[in-house]
Automatic annotation (TrEMBL):
<protein>
    <submittedName>
        <fullName>Uncharacterized protein</fullName>
    </submittedName>
</protein>
């Protein structure tokens, strides 16, 4: 499965919060060495992907063209273009085999007994 497909599957399974935790280095699926070794371009893509995931968690996945939400005079933005670029760049900050393991564990937990 491609990196892009892995991320899409994780989102389908409702793993947005866990995906963000992996990128932040706060998950058992995180690899801090991988995060620390990113070049500046990959760091930027990772940071923008994190902002996008935070937006999704706070305001939901907006299917419309609206990419900004104003709350109490503060504007929050989503960054779907950067999120797509992050996926196309090979999901810098996440090791694909760890993301695959996270997905497999989530799929097992969702199976009926």
């Amino acid at each position: 499965m491609s990196e892009e497909s892995l991320v899409d599957r994780a989102l389908e399974l409702g793993l947005t919060k866990e995906l963000l935790a992996v990128l932040e280095g706060n998950s058992k699926y995180s690899d801090l060495d991988s995060i620390d070794s990113l070049d500046r371009h990959s760091r930027r893509l990772r940071a923008m992907a994190m902002i996008h995931l935070k937006f999704m968690l706070e305001f939901g996945s907006l299917e419309s063209e609206r990419k900004q939400v104003e709350v109490s005079g503060k504007v929050y933005s989503s960054y779907p273009e950067y999120f797509s670029a992050w996926k196309l760049a090979g999901i810098p900050g996440i090791l694909p085999h760890r993301l695959d393991a996270m997905i497999k564990e989530a799929e097992l937990l969702k199976q009926p007994y």
